[in-house]
Amino acid sequence: MKKVLVLGAGIGGVEAAIALKKEGFDVQLVSDRDFLFVYPISIWIPTGEISPDRVKIPLSEISKAHGIKLHHGKVKQIKPDTVILEDGTELKDFDYMVVAIGQTKLKHPGIEHTLSVCGSPDEIIEIKNRLDKLIEKGSGKIAFGFGGNPKAPEAVRGGPVFEVMFNVHNYLKKLGLRDRFEITFFAPMEKPGARLGETALKMMDKMFSSMGINKITGKKIKGFKPEGVILEDREIGADLIVFTPAGDGHPVIKDSPLTQTEAGFLKINDYCQVEDFEHIYAVGDVASIEGPQWRAKQGHLAEVMGRITAHNIAVKENMKNGKPESYKPHINIMCLMDTGNGGALAYRSDSKAMLLPLPVIGHWMKKAWGVYFRLTKLGKFPKII
Ligand SMILES: Cc1cc2nc3c(=O)[nH]c(=O)nc-3n(C[C@H](O)[C@H](O)[C@H](O)COP(=O)(O)OP(=O)(O)OC[C@H]3O[C@@H](n4cnc5c(N)ncnc54)[C@H](O)[C@@H]3O)c2cc1C
């Protein structure tokens, strides 16, 4: 039986491992965490609407449900024929490698004074702790923002920042404290969220003014200090800065001989195969995505890439009939943007750009998706999308 080593147990790596196992491969999943962190539902941690434990799915349970071998360890170095872990273990016994270790974030001066909604699980818990302290104090200033990466525009992650900001607004309102808090949104681009189209932008503007959120866009971010954000032309005073820099290539990839872009993302062909390396594939945020200008790295695309990779390796090994498949036709933006009291379905493809308001129901749809995701990963419910 051919052996596949999957590096990273995030949304893309776990989906690839499950799909590879279904195709009949011997799969080993290497992870530095003992759980799969379901980022899309972690947005409710700061407002206490979900406990961090409900955002984690134990890898031991996923492994048991699907017959995947688990290896706990942090990848230190990737060579085409060997993967070296931080504890010195060398993994050499594989026919194929699937890299799915995600991305890291750009470093801005003073970044240590900020917390990101897209960081480690501990970081988002810290946002909750800091918010709780401000609520206890009874008033405060909170700045929310995200940055860009000119070398990898698809690595900008703004959706979750909007979601946490809208949730915090509604949470403070529910506590009767909203008028004692100043909320400011900032981003260096003129039109943050523009990839969702003009109609969506107009809708977002309306939401900002109805929620009383200050908006400062199109101003370069010079850095951060304990008391706030330093922009090119002014400062934003803040007791809490929730900031998500744009994605940057993973240091392990940057140090590897694997073919990569200037920003350190793996260059793949249509079939998710790393260029110039026949037996190495990459899925999810670790890879450079090629396509329309509005393209974005998303969890659902990471999952599609995982399934396509499994299919393509099986076809290559003559384990099934069919042609290799490309990930590119699956590039779209699909996101149920949560506001705490409802939501909106954001969708972008070559032919469509829309933001469909889903008051009340949108919130519950996202909750239901979280339950569905957990059950399918544990093999307790069939995958329908
Ligand atoms: C807060 C938030 C909300 C989001 N909401 C949505 C949404 O609503 N819809 C949507 O489609 N997408 C959403 N996304 C994007 C989506 O979560 C990502 O695109 C997706 O997680 C990418 O999957 P991945 O497997 O490539 O990376 P990740 O999920 O980041 O997984 C990478 C894994 O690799 C592991 N790893 C890293 N380095 C090493 C190492 N050296 N050794 C071993 N393991 C390592 C990490 O611990 C992690 O488990 C959201 C993202 C965030 C942060």
What are the key terms here?
binds flavin-adenine dinucleotide, globular, FAD/NAD(P)-binding domain, 4-stranded parallel beta sheet, 385 residues, alpha/beta, 30% helix
Q: What is the strand tally?
A: 22
At the fourth level of CATH, the homologous superfamily of the largest domain is FAD/NAD(P)-binding domain
CATH-level-2 architecture of the largest domain: 3-Layer(bba) Sandwich
Number of domains: 2
Tell me the Rg in angstroms. 21 Å
The outline comes out as globular
CATH C-level class of the largest domain: Alpha Beta
Protein structure class: alpha/beta
Bound molecules: flavin-adenine dinucleotide
**Proportion of β residues?**
25-35%
Mean pLDDT across all residues, rounded? 96
Can you walk me through this structure?
The chain has helices at 11-23, 39-42, 52-55, 59-66, 121-137, 159-174, 198-211, 251-254, 299-316, 361-377, and strands at 3-7, 26-31, 35-37, 56-58, 69-72, 75-79, 82-85, 90-91, 96-99, 104-105, 140-146, 181-187, 214-217, 221-225, 228-231, 235-237, 240-244, 247-248, 280-282, 333-338, 342-348, 353-359. It is of the alpha/beta class and 385 residues long. It folds into two domains: 3-103 and 249-331, FAD/NAD(P)-binding domain (3-Layer(bba) Sandwich); 107-246, FAD/NAD(P)-binding domain (3-Layer(bba) Sandwich), CATH 3.50.50. A five-stranded parallel beta sheet has the order 5-2-1-9-19, with helices on one face. Strands 13-12-11-17 form a four-stranded parallel beta sheet, with helices on one face. Strands 6-7-8 form a three-stranded antiparallel beta sheet, with no helix packed on it. A hairpin with a 3-residue loop joins β20 and β21. α1 (11-23) runs parallel beside α9. It is globular. The mean pLDDT is 96. Bound molecules: flavin-adenine dinucleotide (FAD).
